[in-house]
Amino acid sequence: MDSYYDLVEQTDDVTPEYKTETGEWFLDMYPAQRAVDLYHWLYLGEFGYGGEAPPSALDQLTEDIRIARFNPPKYSGVWEPLGLAGRLLKINLVAYSDAGCPLPRLIQLSERVKELRPNSLRFKGDWNFMKTIVVPGMELTLDQIHQFENLIPLHMTPYMGFTEEFERVYGQAFRIVPRKSFFQYFPEFQDDSFSRH
Question: How far from each other are the two terminal CA atoms of the chain, in whole angstroms?
Answer without folding.
Answer: 41
